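User: Assemble these into one structure.

Assistant: Restating your components, then the assembled model:
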Amino acid sequence: MTARQAIALVAWREIHEHLRSKVFIWSTVLLLVVVGGSTALSSVLHTTDKTYRVVVVAPLPGGLDAALQRAAKPFEAKVKLEAVRSAAAARARLETRKADAALVLSRNRIVFQKTIDTKLAAIADGGVRSVRRHLPPAPELTAATVEPPSSSSSDAETLVAMLGAMMLLASLAVYGQWVLTGVVEEKANRVVEVIVATVRPRHLMAGKVIGIGLLGVAQIALIGGLAAALLAAGVFDAPASLGASVALLVPWFALGFALYAVAYAAAGAIASRTQDASSAGLPVTYTLLAMFWLGYVTLSVNADSVLAQLLTVFPPTAPLVLPARSALVGVPIWQHVLALVLVLVAIYALVRLAGRIYGAGLLRSGPRLNLRAALRLARQP
Amino acid sequence: MLSLKDVRKRFGSVQALDGCSFSVERGRMLGFLGPNGAGKTTTMRTVFGLVEPDAGAVLWDHRPIRLDERLRFGYMPEERGLYPRMAVGEQLAYFGRLHGMSAASARAAAAAWLDRLGLADRAGAKLEELSHGNQQRAQLAAALLHEPELLVLDEPLAGLDPVAVQTLAEVLRDEAERGAAVLFSSHQLELVEDMCEDVAIVDHGRVVATGDITSLKRASHRRLITLQLSGAPPDWLPRVPGVELEARRDGHVRLTAGADVDPEQVLAQAEETAEVVGFSYGPPTLSELFLELVAR
């Protein structure tokens, strides 16, 4: 039997047994419902009328209010007009967030503070046209922002980044835990003696990680695929390009999983009893959580900072940070490539180290080894 | 042929194996005996690479064992190990495939062994749903279904009822007849004496005797004489040099004697004082031999 056959056989068993346990099926169904349900929720939320607050620099043309309400109707929105004396006053209103947009009719402009609301821009455009009795397609209003618009992200982008990162975190932790408990159970049941008599420990570890990893990838691909398709179809009030950031979740789950799952496998191998399983996995889980929070805080403060860029390519944080940053502000190609290369190097190094700890720890019984003893075992030939 | 040559292994301050040497030939069954902690399990684990010896060699057909050869070995560890929540039939097929069988032949072999061991109707049940005895049978099937050339079983008789022992003895005998080399450890010396041609007795990590049981017994310096007497004085003993009382109960007198003692002399003295109902003379049993060799 070749190494590949042995790994495939072990992976097949993992997939087969976990599909049978129904936990996987139900969690997938649940997550699909959540993603699909949020679509329904978002359309429900959007049916409630939104009232835009618009300031207009005096004088106010007659019939503008009625024209704006008519134009807003198809968008299921209302417009609340307020006249101010000067452009400066309008700007002050915008900056204090007392208005969503300022209409400067003398200069044919609609001005937003930071990001252009395309819906409101269209409403204002339609309303002003009808007051001036102009017909489309000539552009009436130019949309502008007070601050440069690129520096920030829309709500949808933030939401996709957050949910994506949290889904990655949850999946890495859950599937990592499957690897951990699988390893400890095999040890505790002593079935490992029979298996290791025929399969090399590192092949057993590889088969386990690959089998469970494939299940995770399938789940993420299914859910992420649904989310990306919904985004691309424009169901959400979000740029369709976000679908690409969602699609990034799949390969980065696979890479992140390869990194963290072998660490979980090694942690499992140094425990002997099922009771030790959770405490054995804690160092890995804490590392994962710490990396998540580090990435979360850094991206919240400034997604373009030097630290944010470093975390994008730093292997333990890259799987969690890269897709999120891609959704928020975009990631240049060279950082994609660098992150990929570095994480692959890290996976290679960790697989070698964890494989040795796993092989050495697997056949030991008795109390849990501490990390130093495990590393000492790993150093032995 | 499996042969161990001067195998040594130390765990910390404990010398688990201290020059362990013996061999098991194809088509023969070897009982591996020794007190608790003598190194039996460690020895068996070296065969499967689960323990790396510090020195010495573990050979199959005079060569170090390769992983692909190990696939043709069957192993039943002392602490039984199968997946508790996996269906028995699928589980056996999985182990068959780990040993290099095709999916179809592994399934067929699993079904055949479950049938032979009386578990055919439990093939779909999870292992943890089986009784202890049936789990043992499943474990045995896992070691056997790929028709191993070498079969190593650690305490296969432990915890079995007499019927199950009978089945196991038959299965192992058939395996040896098929041509497999069979090595198993046990504390049930009478059973081993019935089942095996060969034994290896290990003590303190060192093999103190090995070979076929008959020759070992014959090579012993002691002989056993049993007399069943009627009407003998309660404290009667033959006055023959080299003869010692072992036990006396209900008219039965068990004596041990050096191999050079003439049993006729003992019989003649007995006949002078009482009616001799029964008389036997022979080499010690395996149990006695064992106690003689590992007396501490």
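Chain A touches chain B at residues 1, 6, 9, 13, 16-17, 21, 185-186, 189-200, 363 (CB under 8 Å).
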